[in-house]
Design a protein that fits this description.
Blueprint: H1 9-27, H2 34-47, H3 52-63, H4 67-80, H5 105-135, H6 143-152, E1 162-171, E2 175-176, H7 178-187, E3 197-204, E4 207-212, H8 218-234, E5 245-250, E6 254-256, H9 266-276, H10 286-297, E7 307-311, H11 320-333, E8 336-341, H12 354-359, E9 365-368, H13 372-383
Parallel strand pairs: 4-5, 4-7, 7-8, 8-9
Antiparallel strand pairs: 1-3, 2-3, 5-6
Helix pairs in contact: 1-6, 2-3, 3-4, 8-9, 10-11
Length: 388
Amino acid sequence: MRGAPAPSLETRQADELLLGFTRAVRAAGVAVTHDRAAGFLAATAEVGLSDQRATFVAGQATLCSSPDDLARYAQVFESWFNSRDGLPREQPSPPSTSAPSGLAADETDADDQGDDSEDADLLAATASEAEILRHRDVAAMTPGEKARLAAMFATLRPRPPLRRTVRHEAWRRGRVDAARTLRASMRRLGEPARIEWRHRRTRPRRVVLLVDVSGSMSGYADALLRLAHTMTQGTRGHAARGGKVETFTVGTRLTHVTRALASRDAERAIAAAGDVVPDWSGGTRLGETLKVFVDRWGRRGLARGAVVVIFSDGWERGDASLLGEQVRRLRAVAHRVVWVNPHRGKDGYEAVQAGIVAVLPHVDDFVAGHSLATFEELMGVVEGRSRA
C-alpha cells in the first residue's frame, strides 16, 4: 500500500510561515497551545492563505481565547503579514558584485565603499536597537518587540552556583596534602619530594525558581517563564551532579512546571507550561502558596541547600505577616533566597508594599527583573559572581 504523497515545497513553506506566526503571537502574550496552532493551520488550509481577511479571521477564531488577546493578535498580524495578499514582503535581492563593463574601476571602488559604509551604518543601527531593547521594560513592549526579545534570550549564558564538598582532589595550590607528600618521599627512600597540594571539590548547587503568575505580574510572566526555560536548558549538563533547575508558579496555588519546561523548543515549553498552570493571571495568595512549598519541598525537599529565586512584585491579598514567616522558614533551609521585583529598577520605586516590607529582612538579595539586562545581572547574582 502506497503512503500519502509528500507535501509540496509551497505547502511546507506556507506551514513554516504560519507556525512562525503562531510563535510570534505566543511571544506577544497570547496563550497559543499546540492544539490551537494545529487548528489555525487546518482553518487556513480551508480558506486559503491568499485571502488575507479570511486568514485573519481564521487566526482570530482559533488562536484567541479572551478579549485581551484580540488587540495583541491584530498587532502581530499587521507586522507579520504586511502586504495586501497576506504574505510577507519578499526581501530585495542582493546587488550584483560584478561591475558593468561601462563603469571605470575607480567608480566601482567608490560604489563598493559606499555599500560598505551603508552596511556598517546598518549594523551599528541594528546593534543600537538591540541594546535599547535589552534595557526596555518587558511589560511596556509591543508584540513585535516581544517577538524580537524572545530570540534574544539565546544570548544569555546561565551557569549554576557551586558548592564545596567534603572530598578533596589534587590541585596546583591550596592546602598541603601531607599523605601524598609523605608517600612521594617514601618512594624516594626518605629523600625530600615535591610538595603535593589539594583542595575541596565543588559540585553545582540546585536552583529553585518561584514565578508569580498573578494578575499584577501578567505583563512579565511570559518573559519570566522564558528565563526559567533558558536557565533550565543552560544548566542541563549539570543536572546529573545536582545542579538542576526546578521551576514552580505561584498565585492562588502552587504548580510544579519543571517537566513542562523540559522541551528544548522554547515555544513548545512555554505553551506546555501554560496548559498546566490553572491560575494564570488570577489572584495572589503568596503566603499560603509559599507555606505549601516550604511544607512539601522545604526542609527535606528541593529547597534545602538550594538558591531559591522568587519573582514577584509583593502584592499580597492575604496576611503579609504569613508571607514574611514563610520566607523566614525558607531562608532557614535554603543556601540563599533572592527576591526579584520587576519594579525594583524603575525610577521612583519605593519598597512600601506590605508583602515586600515583610520579606525584606529574610532575603539575601533584592534585585530588579524587568528587562533582559536585569535578567543577565540576576544570573550573576544566582551564580554568586555578584551581590545586589
